[in-house]
Amino acid sequence: MRTAAGVAHADFRVPQMDYVTLLRLMQFITRDVREVLQASERCVFNVVFDNRDDHTKNFSFVMDADGRRQFSPAYDLTFNSGPGGEHRMNVSGEARP
């Protein structure tokens, strides 16, 4: 398992990746639009249900037996008010959508 933070060499403690960048990374790593769609659904979930602990260590990739990279099963999905009430990832340029 590799996190988006690890793949991008990003410090998950510092907000530096937005959802658009995450989805682009997902496309680059998996080369599968279905995986990107699944990631976008998780992004929407985080915004709708106020999971503001949406940093780059909470998005991961796994490799299957055939060597294909896939979006990992969801984890750490719960209400979280986030630091200062803001998302760790920007949503359309905003940390407070």
Helix content: 25-40%
Number of helices: 3
Number of strands: 3
Q: What is the spatial order of strands in the main beta sheet?
A: 1-2-3
Beta-strand share of residues: 5-15%
| Low-confidence runs | none
How many strands, what sense, and barrel or not for the largest sheet?
A: 3 strands, antiparallel
Give the CA-CA distance, first to last residue. 30 Å
- Overall spatial form: globular
SSE pattern, N- to C-terminal: EHHHEE
Features:
97 residues; alpha+beta; 3-stranded antiparallel beta sheet; 3 strands; 9% strand; globular
Task: Please provide a written account of the structure.
The protein is α+β, with helices and mostly antiparallel strands and 97 residues long. It has one domain (2-83). Helices cover 34% and strands 9% of the residues. It contains three helices and three strands, in the order E-H-H-H-E-E. A three-stranded antiparallel beta sheet has the order 1-2-3. A hairpin with a 5-residue loop joins strand 2 (60-63) and strand 3 (69-71). The termini are far apart.
Sum this structure up briefly.
The chain has 97 residues and is of the alpha+beta class.
List the helices and strands and how they pair.
Blueprint: E1 2-3, H1 4-8, H2 19-30, H3 33-48, E2 60-63, E3 69-71
Antiparallel strand pairs: 1-2, 2-3
Helix pairs in contact: 2-3
